[in-house]
Amino acid sequence: MPAIHANNLTKSFDGFVAVDGISFTIESGEIFGLLGPNGAGKTTTISMLSTMLKPTSGTATVNGHDIVTKEDDVRKSIGIVFQDQSLDEELTAYENMDFHGRLYRIAGEVRRQRISELLTLVGLDDRKDDLVKTYSGGMRRRLEIARGLLHEPKVLFLDEPTLGLDPQTRNHLWDYIARLNDEKGITIILTTHYMEEADRLCDRVAIIDRGTIIALGTTENLKASIGGDVVTIASPDPGAIAGLLTAPWVSGIERHDGSVTIRMQDADRHIPGIVTDLHRSGIGITSLSVRKPTLEDVFLHYTGRTIRDEEASGKEAMRMFHRAGRR
Ligand SMILES: Nc1ncnc2c1ncn2[C@@H]1O[C@H](COP(=O)(O)OP(=O)(O)O)[C@@H](O)[C@H]1O
Ligand SMILES: [Mg+2]
């Protein structure tokens, strides 16, 4: 049984289609990422899956339970860490955990044991009696994750888990999330607009843009799907290089002023041969670089835009303005 199965899931707000018929399956034990720019529909998607929002149409199951007809079963089997922080600042970490455990009616001794185990897992055991208001952003996020796991859910939803955290804290949190998945076998579905986060953490990624999934696969497959590594050769005669590189493993060539950009699988293996051929043909090379494609290249390939540009344009109003203008 898959952990999550979504079929044509759709959500409209007053006629505006925020999530437009998305379908995917997440296997048990996966870390699955929804990667896309602001406003893509990520939060709306996981809000539907976690029964916080009713879909306009389409269906989905979580741990085998239908998200509309079996809301309670879904809720019992999931943990959620969403963006609006809901910790009590005036309580200690332990007290926050304990309160949540009582809400879920977890019996005393079991509750105490789990709290201790989870606080250790997220590295907060030695600070458990400190008030949350003394915690840093990263510690709060870790505490929220620990709390979301108290009732032993099979699936954990994380909405932009490292949003607003500094790079070092972000790295730590990635380690905790990976360990959680590894040691407890919990299925994790997270949303992010950080391509590096998706790349580092996720087994598979769905790239979402304007409410639709534009590509889905392992990060490796996604990168390979756009034609492989990116090789850039600068030369006094880029045209001659483009003419020479006709091998079947070359999946694309672009000429620029003074350089050529070539896409190919396994560039590391082909580079020596290319350099030899160019040398034999008397074509000079000024410089040569090989770059592995990133998820940003994948997003660019499928949308013609970069996630970073989307972020840079910032405010929702601006985006709506551009969107309206393009129609
Ligand atoms: N309650 C709502 N009412 C109206 N529009 C909404 C509501 N929630 C989200 N939207 C819109 O739906 C789109 C997707 O939002 P969201 O799922 O929050 O995107 P993301 O999480 O990827 O940034 C955005 O254009 C947003 O403005
Ligand atoms: Mg969001």
Task: Write a structural description.
The structure is a single chain. With 327 residues, this protein is an alpha/beta fold. It folds into two domains: 4-223, Rossmann fold (3-Layer(aba) Sandwich), CATH 3.40.50; 227-292, 2-Layer Sandwich (Alpha-Beta Plaits). Helices cover 40% and strands 26% of the residues. It has 13 helices and 14 strands. It has helices at 42-49, 71-76, 93-103, 108-121, 137-148, 167-184, 195-201, 219-225, 238-244, 267-280, 295-303, 307-312, 316-326; strands at 4-13, 16-26, 31-35, 57-62, 65-66, 78-81, 155-159, 187-192, 204-209, 212-218, 229-234, 250-256, 259-264, 287-291. The strands form three sheets. A six-stranded mixed beta sheet has the order 6-7-8-3-9-10, sandwiched between helices. Helix 3 crosses helix 4 (108-121). The protein is elongated and about 80 Å long. The protein binds adenosine-5'-diphosphate and magnesium ion. Adenosine-5'-diphosphate (ADP) is lined by residues 13, 16, 18, 36, 38-44, 316.
Number of helices: 13
Mean of all residue-level pLDDT scores: 89
CATH topology of the largest domain: Rossmann fold
Oligomer: single chain
SSE pattern: EEEHEEHEHHHEHEHEEHEHEEHEHHH
Largest sheet: 6 strands, mixed
Approximately what portion of the residues adopt beta-strand conformation? 25-35%
Tell me the CATH superfamily of the largest domain: P-loop containing nucleotide triphosphate hydrolases
Which percent bin holds the helix content?
25-40%
Give the C-level CATH assignment of the largest domain: Alpha Beta
Low-confidence stretches: 315-327
What's the structural domain tally? 2
**Structural class of the helices, strands and pairings?**
alpha/beta
Number of strands: 14
Please state the overall shape, judged from the principal axes of the Cα atoms: elongated
CATH architecture name of the largest domain: 3-Layer(aba) Sandwich
Radius of gyration based on Cα positions: 24 Å
Strand order, biggest sheet? 6-7-8-3-9-10
Span of the ends, CA to CA: 42 Å
